[in-house]
Amino acid sequence: MRLSPIQLRRHAYVKFSIIAREDYDIDHRYKISLDVRVAKSDHEIPKWIVRVGFKFAKDERATPYEGEIEVEGLFDLHRDFPNENAEQFVRLNAGVMLMGAIRESVMAQSSRMINGPLELPTLDAKVFVDQEDLNLGEGESVRVTQGDEKVLERTGSEKAAKIARSH
Question: Options 3.40.50.150, 1.10.630.10, 3.10.420.10, 3.40.190.80; which CATH number does 6-162 get?
Answer without folding.
Answer: 3.10.420.10
